[in-house]
Amino acid sequence: MILPIVAYGDPVLKKKAEDITNEYPNLDALLDNMYETMYNAYGVGLAAPQIGLPIRLFLVDTEPFADDESLSEEEQKTLKNFKQTFINAKIINEEGEDWAFNEGCLSIPDVREDVFRQPKITIEYLDEQFEKHTKVFDGLIARVIQHEYDHIEGVLFTDKLSSLKKRLIKGRLANISKGKIRVDYKMRFPNQKKKR
C-alpha cells in the first residue's frame, strides 16, 4: 500500500525517533508499504518519520544511482545491488574529509542543495530479522544512509545549510508546508487532517 509522505513542517520530522522491538505490530507489512511508497516516489531512501511514525526505522535502495556513467563499473555494481533495512540504527563513527553532494528529500520536494558530509561511516543496526550488524559504508551509500539516519534523529538536510541558504529557500519551504506544491506522489501536509 502506498502511504502519503509527510511534508516539511510536520512536527514528526523534527522528533527524535524511538527504538522498536521485534514485537512491533505488523512490521513486515509496514516494511512492504514503505518500500512500495519509496519506489512510487522514485526515492533511494525512506525513513519511518516521513510516513508519520516516530520510530527508528529506515530503508535504502541505491539502485537508481547505478546509472551514473561517471562512476566506475565496480561502483555502479555496488550501488545497483545495495538494498537494506535499518532498524534501531546508531552511527558510531564518521570519518574523512567533508564532501558536498546535491541532496533532495521526498518530504521537501523541489528543493535540492549541496550538503557536506563525511564520506565514511560505521553503523550498528538490526536487519528485518532483528539480527545485529556493525558495518562500514562509504561514498554514495554512506551518504544516503546519513541522510535517512538524520530523519530518525529529527534532522532534515535543510538544517545543515548555511543561514544564507536557509533564508534563500525559506519561502519555498513555507509553500511546501502549506501544500502549495505539485508532486506526483501522495503527500500529507501539516495543515491537513489525518485520514483514518
UniProtKB/TrEMBL annotation:
The active site is at residue 148. Pfam families: Pep_deformylase. It is an enzyme of class 3 (hydrolase). Its EC number is 3.5.1.88. Binds 1 Fe(2+) ion. PANTHER family: PEPTIDE DEFORMYLASE. This is Peptide deformylase. It comes from Hyunsoonleella aestuarii. The lineage of its organism: Bacteria, Pseudomonadati, Bacteroidota, Flavobacteriia, Flavobacteriales. The gene is def.
